[in-house]
Amino acid sequence: MHFDPDLLDKLRGARHIAVFTGAGVSAESGIPTFRDAQTGLWANFRAEDLATPEAFRRDPATVWKWYEWRRDLMRNLQPNAAHLAIAALERLVPRVTMITQNVDGLHHRAGSTDVIELHGNIWNNFCFQCRKPAVLTTPTSDIPPRCAHCDGMLRPGVVWFGESLTAPAWHRAADLSEHADVFFCIGTSSLVEPAASLPRYAQSCGRVVIQINPEATMHDGFARHVLRGKAGDIVPQLLC
Ligand code: BV8
Ligand code: ZN
């Protein structure tokens, strides 16, 4: 694949690269994206029906079982070439920061060392009542399992629709969008706020925004470079 010399120059000179990812970067690992009509997770469910605190209050067992179904789907899947190339970038660039909307943990598993998980991590749980972290060590027939501290219901450690992102994660991500030399936007439809505002903010701060996506998104207009294609194809060619 041919890359614009200006893009390659910016990468060569970059001291700090921010990489913002969405579900598309995990698609080639076998994890359905959220809005892909054929296979998207939401294709069979409405996000508002399941990924909200109201849904959990209304029907905790169904929400818990949906997350267990997703965990089972992800459990044996591996980071793909895009995750690995992004992690390997840390050996070439003084500072690389991952800002991901994904909850699958694949950037960590690929070896990225500085990962901001804006929407949490599906492998974590905490108590819906007392919010203490919970590690499931013993099998239980309770669905959802109960908190060892207050007997409240355990919930997955993700940010639901209608919940605020954790302040430290959000402020750090916004700061990086303002200061990184290059801001990659990979595999996101840019529909979920406030995460979707990061590429726009980076561009407004004069950062070089590079969009990688097989489809057009509303952020194409904010990007200095748009690379049309799959992350697993483009990212290793561009970064390695
Ligand atoms: C908030 C964790 C303040 C859960 C997720 C009404 C009430 C309250 C809030 C709102 C409201 N209306 C709107 C909002 C804001 C709301 C929002 O944005 N809603 C959307 C639907 C409009 N946001 C929130 O609620 C956020 N919090 O606003 O707090 C607040 C607080 C209280 C009250 C009011 C406001 C919290 C949002 C976090 C939601 N949690 N995940 C879980 O996973 O179960 S979001 C979920 O969507 C995932 O994290 C996912 O990453 C994210 C975004 O989707 P994408 O990653 O972009 O995935 P998508 O499928 O859409 O796109 C994939 C892309 O990849 C496509 O472009 C495709 O072309 C491309 N692709 C495909 N294959 C490849 C590829 N690219 C590269 N390579 C490939 N091979
Ligand atoms: Zn508790």
From TrEMBL:
The keyword Membrane does not apply. Keywords: Cytoplasm, Metal-binding, NAD, Transferase, Zinc. Its cofactor is Zn(2+). Zn(2+) binds at residues 127, 130, 147, 150. It is an enzyme of class 2 (transferase). It is found in: Cytoplasm. NAD(+) binds at residues 101-104, 187-189, 213-215, 231. GO terms for cellular component: cytoplasm. The active site is at residue 119. Its EC number is 2.3.1.286. Pfam families: SIR2 (PF02146). Belongs to the sirtuin family. Class III subfamily. 2 residues (Tyr-67 and Arg-70) present in a large hydrophobic pocket are probably involved in substrate specificity. They are important for desuccinylation activity, but dispensable for deacetylation activity. This is NAD-dependent protein deacylase.
